Amino acid sequence: MALKSINPTTTESWKKLQSHFETIKAKHLKDLFDANPDRVKDLTVKWEDFYVDFSKNRITDETLALLIELANEVDLKDAISKYFNGDIINATEGRAVLHTALRAPETAKVLVNGDNVIPEVFEVKAKIKKFTEDVVSGEHKGYTGKAITDIVNIGIGGSDLGPAMVVDSLQYYKNHLNTHFVSNVDGDHYNEIIRSLNPETTLFVIVSKTFTTQETLSNANSIRAWFLELLPQEAVSKHFVAVSTNIDSVKAFGIDEENIFPMKDWVGGRFSLWSAVGLSISLAVGYNNFESLLHGAHKMDEHFKHSDFKENIPVISALLTVWYNNFFNVESEAVIPYTQYLSQFATYLQQGIMESNGKYVDRSGKVTGYQTGTVIWGEPGTNSQHAFFQLIHQGTKLIPADFIGFVESLHGNKDHHNKLMSNYFAQTEALMNGKTEAEVLSELENQPISEEESKLLPFKIFQGNKPTTSVLIERLSPESLGKLIAMYEHKIFVQGIVWNIYSYDQFGVELGKQLAKTILKELNSETNTTLHDASTEHLIAHFKEKQ
Ligand code: F6P
Questions:
Q1: Ligand 1: which atom is nearest the Cα of residue 210?
Q2: Sign of the alpha-carbon dihedral angle for 55, 58, 60, 61
Q3: What is the pLDDT of residue 70?
Q4: Surface-to-core class of residue 107, CB atoms within 10 Å of its CB (0-12 exposed, 13-18 middle, 19+ buried)
Q5: How many angstroms separate the alpha carbon of residue 412 from the centre of ligand 1?
Q6: Are 83 and 34 contacting, i.e. CB atoms less than 8 angstroms apart?
Q7: Ligand 1 centre from 304 Cα, in Å?
Q8: What per-residue confidence (pLDDT) applies to 444?
Q9: pLDDT of 96-143, one tens digit each?
Q10: Across-strand partners of 406?
């Protein structure tokens, strides 16, 4: 069954939120804390190894209740059951959205067009497991009989960002295999990677859901050509495998059937790391760790599916974005992990969040008329504190931020970890409380203050009242990472439901691709055309003249 189409701005709760906003907008977080001694208790969710503190957000119990009323009015419950049941909720592409089935237990039953997809999910998982074990143990040898030492994932977008982020995030758990990622069609990218590689000991994993993506196919073709300069054609089957839904095109590329890891069209590219797209993850950290990642995600699925909305981490988190985006007119949100391991996390989320919810047409095909997807960005703390935090603290823009931290560090250096985490706590405290004029004055030694000091006073005041959510997790592990990623996946889903948009298509990336095809022909020919606007025409002419 299709998702309902309910314009959120026509609901009763939206109207109530609008007038409630008028009473909240000028309130300082410090006053909200003073007004409710139970605020932390009321606005913190403890679940498994997650402690999620929403209390430093510009909400009250009433705001949360109204936001939940909104979720009820747009029938989020009905949407969640359609999402998990395999209904065609990606209506514009006529597909179910079932990345959750990829991490469901073997006993689960998820029907797509009347067929249970779980047995096939487990067949592919068994194939990933066997292949991983063979490569990691050295049983799978290259053409010249040497064990594999390097894995190169060739893919882009969801066929790159998910595996690349997870492999980087879980590097502590990595085995001896070196993992590389080639994504950009920029020839310098693949050349930089292959120049240090020995084809005899390298395995190339071509990942493309459609197997039509220009970047991936160009890289795969160029890398195969390089490979064939050094090894014969028969060597390809030992060194190239592929992950795709498009089996015929993979075979036409020259990859043997047994080297194909299939995926299904009900897995969206940006949600596909749990499928065979995660082959590079499994190879890099071992199959058991890959399985733990899936298990963590499944636990978050269960939490999301069954918890009351007021205790539901992805639901609250999504509703907060709606609150800031549609009532405070906030444009962007930051995600700041306090671990270097998650340095690719925001980049990964950019595709998930912005490709999913960057839509201006609602589920009835009408222009929304209200704001949808936010801009997402971030870098790990403490590095980001020395880069863009000035603007978050004292700039003119309101930027809600998620602070992700861990109780334990992986290498166990407590001295460093406590320094790191003191910053994690201090930043959210500073963002909330700011620094008043009286506080700045009280820190100055000379009283009364000099004229010079008094001139500097306004620059040293921090208004505070900057919202943050603290996600404090016990330890970075495959399982907790699985939970964290799934938390954001469900957040994306909830936002899409509330905004009444289709989160699982991506028509917005097509236009540029189409135009690039025409321009490529021009770049490769002698003649210039004048089919472009004047600016583009002159840019192309200048490029060709200088080339
Ligand atoms: O960026 C557009 C997109 O279609 C993404 O959604 C997808 O993850 C990426 O291209 C790669 O597509 P494919 O896996 O089919 O090569």
A1: 15
A2: negative
A3: 98
A4: exposed
A5: 38
A6: no
A7: 27
A8: 83
A9: 999 999 999 999 999 998 999 999 999 999 999 999 999 999 999 999
A10: 473
DSSP 462-480: B-----EEEEEES---HHH
d(CA 285, CA 155) in angstroms, rounded, equals 19
Å from CA of 486 to ligand 1 middle: 19
Nearest one of 486, 476, 473, 474 to 104, comparing CA atoms? 486
Contact 198, 180 (CB under 8 A): no
Tell me, what amino acid is at 404? I
How high is the pLDDT of residue 445?
Answer: 78
What was the pLDDT predicted at 1?
84
Catalytic residues: 355, 386, 513
Please give the pLDDT value at position 472: 98
- Residues whose beta carbon lies within 6 Å of some atom of ligand 1: 156-159, 208-210, 213, 216, 269-270, 355, 506, 509
Return the sign of the alpha-carbon dihedral for residues 168, 174, 176, 177: negative
Peptide bond preceding 382: is omega within 30 degrees of 0, i.e. cis? yes
User: Which domains, ranges and CATH numbers included, belong to the chain?
Assistant: 8-73+307-443+469-499 (3.40.50.10490), 115-290 (3.40.50.10490), 509-546 (1.10.1390)
Q: pTM here?
A: 0.98
pLDDT digits (tens, 9 = 90+) for 178-221: 999 999 999 999 999 999 999 999 999 999 999 999 999 999 99
Among 210, 212, 265, 348, which residue has the most ligand 1 atoms within 8 Å of its CB, making it the best to mutate? 210
- pLDDT at position 448 is 84
Report how far residue 81's alpha carbon sits from residue 86's, in angstroms, rounded to the nearest whole number: 9
Cα–Cα distance for residue pair 291/463, rounded to 1 Å: 46
Contacts of 227 (CB under 8 A, 6+ apart): 199, 204, 235, 236, 239, 240
Mark the ranges of the chain whose per-residue pLDDT is less than 70.
530
For residue 67, give both structure tokens. Answer: 């936001």
Nearest to 24 by CA among 74, 71, 61, 49: 61
